[in-house]
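Journal club prep, notes for RB
We'll compare a predicted complex against what the paper describes. Inputs for the manganese (II) ion case:
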Amino acid sequence: MPRMLYSQAQLFKPPRVDVLVMTPWLAPIVWEGTFDPAIMDMQFRNATIGLTIFAIKKYVVFLKLFLETAEQHFMAGHRVTYYVFTDRPADVPRVPLAPGRRLEVLEVPASKRWQDVSMRRMEMISHACEQRFGHEVDYLVCMDVDMRFGARVGTEILAPLFGTLHPGFYGAARGSFTYERRPQSRAYIPKDEGDFYYAGGFFGGSVAEVQRLTTACHQATMADKANGIEAVWHDESHLNRYLLYHKPAKVLSPEYLWDQQLLGTRPFLRKLRYLAVPKNHKEIRS
Ligand code: UDP
Ligand code: MN
């Protein structure tokens, strides 16, 4: 690293005492105050980041706000490639991109059921890791598209493997998580296991790790299908099982995935970085 000036960390003045900032396997839980953005940006100055989003059928309407706010808040100043998976390439809006940033459209088929659209993301990301991501980017960030950015989502999230706390369950007991509870499913997690409930809409890591994760989740989904079972929360259930047995190197706090309409605000949330856009589930999925 080049010479940098910044305020010194104080061993006896922890920046946050109101929230857990470290998992029991010593992975940081990323909250405002726990990191210096300038140091993180310097450390990852040479990284190229791929962002995968799926806009299948009516979900193309979410692209404009997603991309416009990503240009403001997602990895500003870094090399970024947006990978937009869609069945409607003509409906991808032309949003002006800052230097060093580009957008690639990957035309993919739509599935009939929204559950299949969601689950097949694992298969398509896994396939693209093999085909191209490995040559094109260092890190992959995989996100839902029905969202907007409201504050920095930057290099502080980067790690070989990371997951994000689901805003509906951040303080809940493991027994109440909506993990898949049927032992017949490959997403099964027993009641006495579990660290966190991770969100299906925000995970990532190095291309190699994301390839392992998405391939494993896709294979588990296929095995379930062959056995006539579908995990209760689809790809999210498989993601939770994977991250239980492959501990993430960083965990993103609910700052990184929040729903204001549903949950309002909370005193421990100093930033709202990535926010749900209200949608009519029935209408948009039909
Ligand atoms: N999705 C899509 N078209 C659909 C359904 C889902 O493109 O018809 C993609 C989209 O990227 C979306 C993600 O799958 O963000 C997950 O679905 P959704 O956001 O509806 O799930 P929720 O966040 O409501 O659980
Ligand atoms: Mn969503």
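Talking point for the session: The longest helix spans residues 114-136.
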